[in-house]
Design a protein that fits this description.
- It is built from seven helices and eleven strands.
- It has helices at residues 31-39, 73-81, 92-103, 113-124, 164-178, 191-195, 203-211; strands at 3-5, 22-26, 43-47, 52-56, 60-64, 85-88, 128-135, 138-148, 151-159, 183-187, 199-202.
- It is an alpha+beta fold and 212 residues long.
- The longest helix is centred in the last third of the chain and has 15 residues, at 164-178.
- A seven-stranded mixed sheet has the order 6-7-8-9-10-5-11, sandwiched between helices.
- It folds into two domains: 3-59, Alpha-Beta Plaits; 62-211, Aminopeptidase (3-Layer(aba) Sandwich).
Length: 212
């Protein structure tokens, strides 16, 4: 069942959403609502062609645990070459704009102006972060997501050169490993995330990690 949200700051029980994970539509993208959503494993997709915010909460979650990140031989070789520099939170705006620009013409593109504004506000309040990959002074890849407690909720990534987004994810996982992070939420499975150590867990297990 898909619920219609009102102005009240609340979400329905995710167990009663559609089997594909769609839980609700409507509401807003305020900081308080976004934090409440992510605290319960809920995230928005903005179907901007229809002008509707969709809220999703799959019962089957695809995540990467920092100590399980898989670094292939080719990626280790790339890292050892030290061709690229990795930074955190040095160009959040540029990263999210690049993620949106690369997907604007795709079917189901969702990262429009209102979403970018909402996550930029989250970043300014310390609840969203970016990882940047630089080739000299040029931004060539990165990712961004929401940070709550010891969990990172990945939203989008981009690469302008081969494997740049993989580099960003590896460095994020290593940072988490060294600083007590427990989980990187990937939202949905993709082939390259699976090869990097992503796996499925249940919603109940997922929520246990968030509550930590």
């Amino acid at each position: 069942m898909v619920f219609q949200l009102t102005d009240r700051l609340a979400f329905p029980d995710p167990h009663y959403g559609d089997p594909d994970g769609l839980l609700a539509v409507g509401g807003d993208l305020s900081i308080d609502r976004l934090i409440l959503a992510y605290s319960n494993g809920i995230f928005p997709w903005y179907a901007f062609r229809e002008g509707v915010i969709q809220w999703w909460c799959p019962m089957d979650r695809f995540v990467i645990f920092p100590d399980e990140i898989h670094i292939s031989h080719s990626m280790r070789t790339l890292i050892n070459k030290e061709k690229y520099k990795i930074t955190f939170n040095q160009a959040f705006g540029e990263v999210i704009q690049a993620c949106g620009a690369l997907r604007m013409d795709q079917e189901g593109a969702w990262l429009g102006t209102k979403m970018i504004e909402a996550y930029t506000c989250l970043h300014e309040q310390g609840f969203a972060a970016s990882v940047e990959v630089w080739e000299e002074e040029r931004l060539v890849g990165g990712l961004y997501g929401v940070t709550l407690g010891r969990c990172f909720f990945g939203e989008s990534m981009f690469s302008l050169v081969p494997s740049a987004s993989k580099l960003a994810l590896i460095h994020l996982a290593q940072f988490f490993q060294n600083h007590g992070g427990v989980m990187i939420d990937c939202q949905f499975e993709t082939p390259h995330l699976k090869t990097m150590g992503g796996r499925h867990i249940s919603y109940s297990e997922y929520m246990n990690y968030i509550r930590q």
